Amino acid sequence: xxxxxxxxxxxxxxxxxxxxxxxxxxxxxxxxxxxxxxxxxxxxxxxxxxxxxxxxxxxxxxxxxxxxxxxxxxxxxxxxxxxxxxxxxxxxxxxxxxxxxxxxxxxxxxxxxxxxxxxxxxxxxxxxxxxxxxxxxxxxxxxxxxxxxxxxxx
Amino acid sequence: xxxxxxxxxxxxxxxxxxxxxxxxxxxxxxxxxxxxxxxxxxxxxxxxxxxxxxxxxxxxxxxxxxxxxxxxxxxxxxxxxxxxxxxxxxxxxxxxxxxxxxxxxxxxxxxxxxxxxxxxxxxxxxxxxxxxxxxxxxxxxxxxxxxxxxxxxx
DNA sequence: TACTGATAGTCAGCATACTGAGCAATATCG
DNA sequence: CGATATTGCTCAGTATGCTGACTATCAGTA
Lengths: 154, 154
Description:
Two copies of one chain form a homodimer.
Chain A: H1 8-29, H2 36-47, H3 53-60, H4 64-76, E1 80-84, E2 92-96, H5 98-117, H6 124-141
Chain A binds a DNA duplex (30 and 30 nucleotides) through residues 17, 20-21, 24, 35-38, 52-54, 62-70, 73, 85, 88-92, 145-147.
């Protein structure tokens, strides 16, 4: 058996585990109750007002069944509104609320700090290289998960 | 807002998402139904017969509340036995069954292949560097999650 | 236009992961 | 020895994420 430290899958799980913990700690200290997934969704909706759930899922590489619950909770918190699309009656258009915008602005410093903390063991050069290598591996494996990234907003 | 591709937390989630999908696909093709977490637990128990759940959790950096369910399912599948410890009546000693050993042996090629596939976009040098950088970042952040790695078996 | 296939969203079910609480047993220290 | 703290495990509750199935709707085509 290979050592855990030689298994990229194990290292990936561990790094993500720490990343989530750091995110929640920083955001919580700032007085907010928002998960990494909720933050990513909220930020993407602000950048793409009126986006539908399927497109949102593609932009941030979630499964569409996961989006349903995430959007539910953001609506519950009054950070989003979800309304039927007029052009396509299957689709739901998502719009960020004023409270959503305020929350995003207020939370951003904590999110940035979290990104720094999760890389605190690396030099700036190493951090950049780690991100480059993750991006490259992800690009090559994009189609291997059920929720691949889809860059198009159209 | 920073682009997602500049957020180490997002990249970590995405890389892990692909790693899990690849693992499940390879293991499933080989005819087995075992998750990455179940595999890691089974391998660790084989290497440390009679280990208790708390020590196991430390060895592979799970939360102890997660271990309960994982062990439940492995026992259900007849890959493990869980029995009360004689030295400490709070503890549960874990032992791999013969079927567990057979499963581990049979599944290993698929697991190895999965590790290769999730790094297929990288050169061997880049793959080694990605793993080195993840290990370094993880070591620095070990104490930041609720389930830190604990190397001791004692 | 009617049929066929694809798409948007939801749901049920399962498996990680976490928080916080609780119980039983053990360790420690005055 | 006895009070206190700690430890091992479990449970309830919540939030990702997945598979597979289903409904409603839309798009393309015979």
